[in-house]
Amino acid sequence: xxxxxxxxxxxxxxxxxxxxxxxxxxxxxxxxxxxxxxxxxxxxxxxxxxxxxxxxxxxxxxxxxxxxxxxxxxxxxxxxxxxxxx
Length: 86
Fold this sequence. Notes:
Elements: H1 2-5, H2 14-43, H3 74-80
């Protein structure tokens, strides 16, 4: 966990390290989701709806699912590659 955060683990408990690592990963996913949403929205067709960063971020999705499960909306990913054969 300390490797994810990039700190010396000595003065911290495992719980504190887990909190820091989870926050670091959530922040990284937030940045990646923002970039992915911008790329998607810049290249989407006229008839497709705009995507938000929350559509691509597993940390900001529906909290009713089990923790650790990631579900991707395939329609967003498929629309990024419109000329690809199915």
